[in-house]
Amino acid sequence: MSASCVCFDLFPEDSTSNEVEEHIQGSVRRKYSLLSPSQLTAGHHARGESVPGKQWQHHANRTVSSSERLLQHLHQRSSLWQGLTFYLLVRPKVPEFEVTDFRLEGLDTSLTAQQMSTTSTVSISSYNGNKKISFDFKSINVHVTTNVKTGDVSVGDGTLPPVFLGKGETVKLQGVFKATPMAMGKDTQAALIKAQNTRNLPLKVNMDLKTRIQMGSIKFIKIKVKVRCNIAVDPSVTTGSQILNKACTYKARPYV
User: Fold this and answer.
1) DSSP three-state, residue 179
2) What's a GO cellular component annotated to this UniProt protein (predicted)?
3) Of 6, 73, 117, 140, which is least packed with CB atoms within 10 Å of its CB?
């Protein structure tokens, strides 16, 4: 049996990280007959032998540490292989995202003060086109900025609560986000005033999500999803959606 076999152990969902780490390290030590320095010292005492010197102890520390680094490397590689196998069998698709509604408030005050104090109300729709898998989103960060040549300025930042996206389902996400206070230069101020006067303000709505793929009650690999949307709004609109046009891209990658 190869050394990588211990890397494919499956642990219950309620296992703590310390329990998993201790189990893995114990497997490696048993596999290669590696003992920690304290275990080696206890063994010498039991046999009536003298305890090795500090130099030998340092060598033992390095040996155990090296084996654990090797195990960690193999464990990461095995996770990638598991992810590849899962992809080939299931062929998962990244959920689709769309900005369905947007409202920007406080732009006039911000331009006068040359510091952003805006509030962005964002509605986002997400559709899961997969027939076999669901997504359990645990972390959703939203960052809204202006999209002008003179530089990006925050008009709203925040997080959304966790959400479960079942197979074939559509969920609506909505949040109210306040701008991160940031002074704007005169060029940025002029560009935003121009966009406001032409009633066409370009914005970027970025979302970074962490989720776990789930099939029934079985949880598989964790992935990060990046959603990048370019929209244009008319901030003078006071009723209904301010969106003039929109386009979103999204991509995902696994993470440990």
Assistant:
1) coil
2) membrane
3) 73
Name the strand (E) or helix (H) holding 247: strand 243-255
For every one of its 256 residues, what pLDDT tens digit does the chain have, with 9 covering 90 and above? 333 332 223 334 444 445 444 544 454 444 434 444 455 455 555 555 554 554 445 444 444 455 455 545 555 555 566 666 666 777 788 999 999 999 999 999 999 998 889 999 999 999 999 998 999 999 999 999 998 887 788 999 999 999 999 999 999 999 999 998 888 888 989 999 999 999 999 999 999 999 998 988 888 788 999 999 999 999 999 888 899 999 999 999 888 7
Where are the chain's structural domains? Answer: 3-90, 96-255
Fold assignment, 96-255:
Immunoglobulin-like (2.60.40)
Could you tell me if 129 and 92 are in contact, meaning their C-beta atoms sit under 8 angstroms apart? no
Q: Which amino acid is at 172?
A: K
Residue 5 carries which side chain, given as an amino acid letter? Answer: C
Query: Distance (Å, rounded) from C-alpha 80 to C-alpha 86?
Result: 10
CA–CA separation, 253 and 42 (whole Å): 46
Q: Which residues contact 67 (CB under 8 A, 6 or more apart)?
A: 28, 29, 32, 34
